[in-house]
Amino acid sequence: MRRVAALLAPLALTLALAAAPAQAQRGVDDAAESAPTPPVPTPAPAPTPAPPETPRQLEPDLYLEAMQAIAEGRNNDASSTLARMLAYGPRHAGEWLDLALLQCALGHADEAEQLFQHIETRFDPPQGIRDIIVQQRQQGCAQWRAQRQWSLNLARGHERNVNQGVNLDTYNIGGDGRDYELEARYRPQADRYTTVALDLMSDLTQNGDLGFVQLYARHYDRMDEYNTISLFAGADHPWRYRHWRLRTSALVGALSLGGRLYQAQGQLQLRVTLPLALPPSLEVSVLGGLSHVNYRTLSDFDSNISELRGMLAYRREARQAQLSLGWLNDHAVSARPGGNRAGWSLGLYGRLPLGRQFEGELDLTRQHWVGSNVYSPGLIDQLRRQDNTTLRAALSYPLGTSSALQLEWRQVRNRENIPIFQYDNKVLQLSWRWHGGR
Fold first, then answer.
1. Is the dihedral of CA 319, 323, 329, 332 positive or negative?
2. CA of 388: how far to CAs of 152, 164, 241, 416, in Å?
3. 126 upstream amide cis, omega within 30 of 0
4. pLDDT digits (tens, 9 = 90+) for 69-112
5. How far apart are CA 235 and CA 71, in angstroms?
6. Cα separation, 265 vs 333, whole angstroms
7. Residue 133, phi then psi, degrees to nearest 5
8. How far apart are CA 244 and CA 237, in angstroms?
9. What is the reported pTM?
């Protein structure tokens, strides 16, 4: 559908130039920003004053609005815009053809054919317009089909600190001045692992609604108690308010640890893209989200998390970059150690081609939390301050049009003011990714 919409724009421009020279300034490409040519007012006979501008003269370029909606997969919004265009009433063959091509792009073949016939019988279009009508009839109108995509990822890796153990031989808590020896099971333990990840995504409606499912499993060679399986499912709904682009998403999921259900969660998010006058490669958006986390094997750890995040994204061909900065609040549902938490997060991401075949990724995230209460009165009489930094680098090599190999390295540094919670971790992983869809 989106490919058909992209092909219609230059055709409509040709028709508008041929059928109505006064409309030659009308931008038909989605990226065009030239203002439409103002209509020439009909002089009113004296002494009658000139009539005020009609709603049609004040109406923005509905054709561009409809084409943009089709390009973004919002066919229902395009149909609404088309209805507004019909309500205003086309004035010449060029505008009738705009309506016909929009109907065809939306898959309304009968309505498009009626408009084509109307153009041929009511107007005397030039041969160029007739040729395009013939070509469109031969090509046929678009038929909506749900687009589906999937990916399968198989990986083998090595993790240095599976259990998030601390690099301490002794520790001191309780303020009694005594040092206690740390048991071996709480020190870093390394292991190799195998992962399987499956992602499915599909259109749900003609208006760009998406549904997705993500399944992930990790199995360690020796440390079975840290095996994990997670399943998440959700939906995403795009919409617009005037020039503001918005996306609403909902997600639910569960995570098992060591063969037992460990955590369940739900999330709601709203992303707003700001209508700023920026180059096409740049985008500024704001994301707000609410999450609820329920721990099935731990008491007093359930929480509600809210976030507000600003993002600056750059995309040009195969190059991508994103900067994000967010505010976080973690509200403890019950008497969690340390109480509520407040913090911030920083994210930097970049992807670019390296030579003719390789592609590189670099990802840096940092998250900082501060508790509101003493973590454990009488035992750990401190406010917990968490500072976690993750650095990730990846190198991908395509094996064809639908698969690739990826070598990934990740380092985690968790620096806290309470020594027994500090840990480091390093992961090295080689994965094969296979993807497809229609």
1. positive
2. 29, 13, 37, 8
3. no
4. 777 777 777 777 777 777 776 667 777 787 788 788 777 888 88
5. 20
6. 14
7. -65, -45
8. 14
9. 0.73
